Amino acid sequence: MKRLKMRVSAFVLAGATLPVHAASLDLNLNDDAVRGEFSGALSSLFSTGTEGLYQLGALYSDDENLDLKQLHAGLLATGDVGAQDVLATAGLGLRAQYLDADGGDGGGLALGGQFDLRLAGFERLGLQGYLWHSPKVLSFGDVEDQTEWMLSADYQVLRNASAYLGYRQLRIDPDNGHAFDADDGFHLGFRFKF
Fold first, then answer.
1. What's the CA gap between 114 and 91, in Å, rounded?
2. 193, 161 contact by CB (below 8 A)
3. Phi, psi dihedral angles at 123 (to 5 degrees)
4. What is the structure's pLDDT at 12?
5. pLDDT value at position 104?
């Protein structure tokens, strides 16, 4: 547990050194896993007025069957989806990811996206999700392919802080074995906007 606290603290401190214009920090955990992600506007990195996000994140899972560490960095084009009576934003992009698990390590380039939905007049309640898939052709090492998805429902306790309940699944298909769920279950999380 002490190692876990040190890793989470290091991740938070590393995120604090990044540009903070329109940035957010997402932290979630359950009994077996902790995940953190820092994201910010691409316009804070590039002066071209690019509309999108960059993301840096990590997942650590230590259940009775598997010790897993995953790192990722991604770029997404984002914007409003134009739905009426719904505040809906989405992003599509690429994510480089690396994982180190019992029995092997590897990674790849994942394709995917995310969304955030809120009803007009009820903006404090929201539904979010993401899906990332790294196919065999874009993977390396002991990983043949991997898929990670998540759905969550949040409540904005403050305008810049939300609490949420989510469900995540990280499925890995190794080169030398059968596909398995490296992380699968409900988690409690917090999102902070700066």
1. 5
2. yes
3. -65, -20
4. 39
5. 76
Give the tokens for residue 94: 């690429």
Report which of 192, 194, 158, 193 is spatially closest to residue 28, judged by C-alpha positions: 192
Return the pLDDT at 6: 46
Q: List, for the chain, all residue ranges whose pLDDT scores fall below the cut of 50.
A: 1, 4-21
Number of other residues whose CB lies within 10 A of the CB of residue 96? 15
Task: Determine whether domain 2-193 maps to CATH 1.25.40.
Answer: no
Query: For residue 48, what pLDDT is reported?
Result: 67
* H or E segment and range at residue 173: strand 161-174
Cβ atoms of residues 94 and 75 within 8 Å: yes
Within 10 angstroms of residue 13's Cβ, the number of other Cβ atoms is 9
Which residue type, as a one-letter code, is found at position 94? L
* 160 and 193 Cβ atoms separated by less than 8 Å: yes
pLDDT at 13: 39
Pull the structure tokens for residue 175: 């080169």
- β-bridge partners, 67: 62
Is-contact 164 128, C-beta < 8 A? yes
CA distance 68 to 43: 33
Which pTM does this prediction carry?
0.84
Considering Cα of 98, then 101, then 105, then 111, what sign does the dihedral take? Answer: negative
Show me where the domains of the chain are located: 2-193
CA distance 117 to 128: 6
In the structure encoding, which two tokens stand for residue 192, read together?
């902070």
